[in-house]
């Protein structure tokens, strides 16, 4: 008896199993919103582009996620038009700042960010809005557009 070889059925089954694992992993990441990239380019109300560094925090924030989302929704006029809302508890450093701010970043996908006060002039790269909620006070401290969302 020679060595046993694996036939096409084995490889087809293995491929399907790998695809299923990848799909399930993607669904899990989609539900939690996935991680934000460590570097973002944010657009301020005056149209200025700001480099931002984002570091996920694991400690317990003083303001719970549900409260942060509610406060962000109050601060953003068209928040109800979002196709998806994601919350991330992060240390945010803007530009050349040296001290990060601990904030909830609430991302509103599909809610245009306008620098002129009119969404008719929205740059397609800033088709999403982000609201920063201070984790100590629960106050919306900044609203930005985000490149690529």
Plain-language structure description:
By secondary structure, this protein is α+β, with helices and mostly antiparallel strands. The chain has 2 domains: 7-35; 37-146, no CATH class. It is built from 2 helices and 6 strands; from the N terminus they run αββαββββ. It has helices spanning 8-31, 65-75, and strands at residues 39-43, 49-56, 84-94, 101-109, 128-134, 140-146. It has a 6-stranded antiparallel barrel. A hairpin with a 5-residue loop joins strand 5 and strand 6 (140-146). The termini are far apart.
**Estimated share of beta-strand residues:** 25-35%
Distance between the termini: 59 Å
> Over all CA atoms, what is the radius of gyration?
21 Å
Strand order across the largest sheet: 1-2-3-4-5-6
Number of strands: 6
H and E order: HEEHEEEE
| Count of folded domains | 2
Major pleated sheet: 6 strands, antiparallel, barrel
Could you list the spans in which at least 5 consecutive residues all have pLDDT below 50?
A: 14-32, 121-125
- Given the helix and strand composition, which structural class is it? alpha+beta
Helix content, binned percent: 10-25%
